[in-house]
Design brief:
Distance between the termini: 38 Å
Number of strands: 0
Radius of gyration: 25 Å
Structural class: mainly alpha
Number of helices: 11
Order of helices and strands: HHHHHHHHHHH
């Protein structure tokens, strides 16, 4: 039985007592700052060069040529934005790879060591990225394949079935919609524990996806309750944070953006820690210690002997090809 209340309390109390765990999330600001700076420069330059009449006349004369001209004038800034976007993917994977180890430290009541979490993340963030890419591709193929199949069946029934075919087609559409909803929910449930599986157990790709699927057996309902409560909690937090930011705007004006960024750190850390703690809650019931290559030992499964820290249990940390 997943103790969701205790899980949330552990995540929240750790953020309150160990605010240093928010620091890795600041790395996500780097590409955002670069993108904002580049777009600000582009907008300022654009406004300084072109009036509305100039734009209208230039666009009417030569649409494609004018667009090409704008592109050439801002080629370096556009390249900077594209580089920042691609960099943000790697940074996000690295940051997400930090928090499962912190969750592990919380779960087993160890000292919170950011250095240990960062050290492990450096070796496994590419595995996190690769696993997410594979999982997202599989998910999209399955979901859109279901939609496409539903559309084909609907068209066939309506075309060749007459009045009865319309009824069968509508039933097929409803079944397809329900199936698609079920797939989205299940994909979301797997996504919750996928990154902790990669980092803590040191497996990736299809192996990590299969392990996540195995862990959800018999636990899906509890995981869905966790997901619903997490969404509600974050919705309430963002409503409160938006109210606070709105009030502060009258006091500090444009500096409110900084406060908003700081407020965003709290739910991000809470979510990532909760994912890791959820994985550790459901893992002992499903993991076979004999064939798992990573961090799977649980105190209840080894005569209440706490497992060693993740760094001591690691296998070879070679990056995925």
């Amino acid at each position: 039985m997943v103790n969701i209340e205790n899980l949330f309390n552990n995540a929240f109390s750790t953020i309150r007592t160990e605010p240093k765990i928010l620091l890795p999330l600041v790395l996500n600001w780097i590409p955002i700052a670069i993108i904002s700076l580049a777009m600000s420069i582009m907008a300022s330059d654009f406004i300084g060069k072109y009036s509305l009449d100039t734009l209208r006349i230039a666009f009417e004369k030569e649409k494609f040529g004018f667009i090409t001209q704008l592109f050439n004038e801002n080629i370096y800034l556009i390249a900077m934005i594209l580089l920042a976007i691609s960099t943000s993917i790697f940074i996000s994977s690295f940051v997400n790879a930090v928090y499962p180890t912190i969750s592990y430290q919380i779960y087993y009541k160890k000292k919170i060591l950011i250095s240990e979490a960062v050290s492990i993340a450096k070796k496994r963030y590419l595995k996190v990225l690769w696993t997410n890419i594979i999982f997202n591709i599989i998910s999209m193929v399955v979901i859109f394949g279901t939609i496409f199949l539903g559309i084909i069946l609907f068209a066939v029934f309506v075309t060749v079935g007459g009045i009865a075919g319309v009824g069968i087609g509508l039933a097929t559409a409803i079944i397809t919609a329900l199936l698609m909803l079920a797939l989205i929910v299940y994909v979301s449930a797997i996504q919750l524990i996928l990154e902790p599986v990669v980092v803590i157990e040191n497996i990736y790709g299809l192996s990590a996806i299969e392990k996540s699927h195995t862990l959800l057996k018999g636990k899906l309902f509890e995981v869905l309750i966790f997901l619903i409560l997490l969404i509600i909690a974050n919705g309430l937090y963002f409503a409160m944070a938006g109210l606070i930011a709105g009030l502060l705007e009258f006091v500090i004006g444009p500096y409110t953006t900084i406060i908003e960024l700081l407020l965003m750190l709290l739910p991000s850390a809470f979510i990532l820690l909760s994912y890791g703690l959820l994985y550790l809650e459901i893992a002992p019931a499903s993991i076979n210690l004999s064939d798992s290559p990573g961090l799977v030992a649980h105190p209840q499964e080894q005569n209440n002997t706490p497992p060693p820290p993740p760094e001591e249990l690691k296998q070879s940390d070679s990056s995925p090809d």
